[in-house]
Amino acid sequence: MSETTEGQAVGGARAAGAARQGVQSIDRAVAILKCFSPRRPEMGISDLARATGLSTSTTHRILASMQANGLVRQTPQRRYALGPLLVQLARSGAFPTTLGDAARGPMHELRALVDETVGLHELLPGNRRAVVDQVESHHALRRTYTELGVPIPLVYGAPGKAMLAFLPAAEAEAVLAEPIAPVTPATITDRAEVRAELARVREDGYALSFSERTPGIRTVAAPVFDHDSRVVGSISVSAPESRMPEERMREMGPQVRRCAASVSQALGAAPGPDGRPPPGGRRPGPAEWGANATGFHELRGRPHAEPRVADTR
Fold first, then answer.
1. Cα distances (Å, whole numbers) of residue 73 to 41, 46, 66, 91
2. Hey, which bits of the chain come out as E strands?
3. Tens of pLDDT along 133-173?
4. Which of 10, 80, 253, 266 gets the most CB atoms within 10 Å of its CB?
């Protein structure tokens, strides 16, 4: 090996080592940031060292760099708290603050991918859901939502099932205790069958509806989570059943799931691999679920009819 080649190799090794050290420092800084919470807004060096598994000297060195960059601050009691840079970033408007803001870009990207109507559904108080936004297909015969904001029980349709599957068990059981009136010939009214559907949703990360709420419309939907891994809504793709054979719906499932995961990330959630729901978002049902294969007014009685298919030709 020539001296030039040998020198290049040594230089490259040093650069790679420096890069690894830099990444390690970032990992350690992130570990320190994750130690702070509403229950622990301030922590001392020893507390942080124990929580992260770092030595006291390493923790002190990283904290000094973090303080210089505004990531942490030191209190009068010589303890540490989250720093002003984080507050500035959080309040700068750089982060989406609403479900609609977080979903708008990913919804357009999904529509460009499948060219079917993409819907945004929000979980309402009382565990109902409502359509709050849509990006319509370019097809002349397409799904068009016309009653935005109307509360709908979660048991009807894929968007509701995508949310219902990830509610805390007690809340989900309360929803299932309500009467399930058939609104189309395909509506699933048997509770055991609904529970089996919800188990599949938790496994797949998306829900399917075969004209269960609107005749002639088939839908694929996936849940959206917030920074606490709580389900807050869902993203859906809907189309006339003539363009939505089951094979296409199952091909769309991962695409819709990844779109919903992108929205969840924008809201502060940390989705699992391939856009699957975050671990904290999995809300296991009661024991019998496994045995069975596992601001709006409340809606009472029969749910409002789903907006019709709009033929714009």
1. 11, 16, 8, 18
2. 72-74, 80-82, 117-124, 128-135, 141-143, 152-153, 207-210, 217-225, 231-240, 309-311
3. 999 999 999 999 888 999 999 999 999 999 999 999 999 99
4. 80
CA dist 201 and 198 (Å) reads 5
Burial of 117 by CB count in 10 Å (0-12 exposed, 13-18 middle, 19+ buried)? buried
> Cα(280)–Cα(133) distance, rounded to whole angstroms?
26
DSSP string for residues in 247-276:
HHHHHHHHHHHHHHHHHHHHTT----GGGP
- Give per-residue pLDDT as tens, 62-116: 999 999 999 999 999 999 999 999 988 887 777 777 999 999 999 999 999 999 9
Q: Is the dihedral of CA 42, 47, 49, 51 positive or negative?
A: negative
Q: If residue 199 lies in a helix (H) or strand (E), which one and from where to where?
A: helix 191-204
pTM exceeds cut of 0.85: no
220: how many CB neighbours lie within 10 A of its CB?
A: 29
Nearest to 220 by CA among 246, 184, 194: 246
Calculate ∠ Cα 259-265-114, nearest 5°: 10
Q: Which two tokens stand for residue 289?
A: 């679920």
Helices (H) and strands (E) in the chain, counts: 10, 10
**Hey, which residues does 121 pair with through a beta bridge?**
131, 234
Pairing of strands 152-153, 217-225: unpaired
Cβ atoms of 154 and 201 within 8 Å: the answer is: no
Tokens coding 50? 């124990």
Query: Of 311, 310, 6, 283, whose CA–CA distance to 146 is shortest?
Result: 310
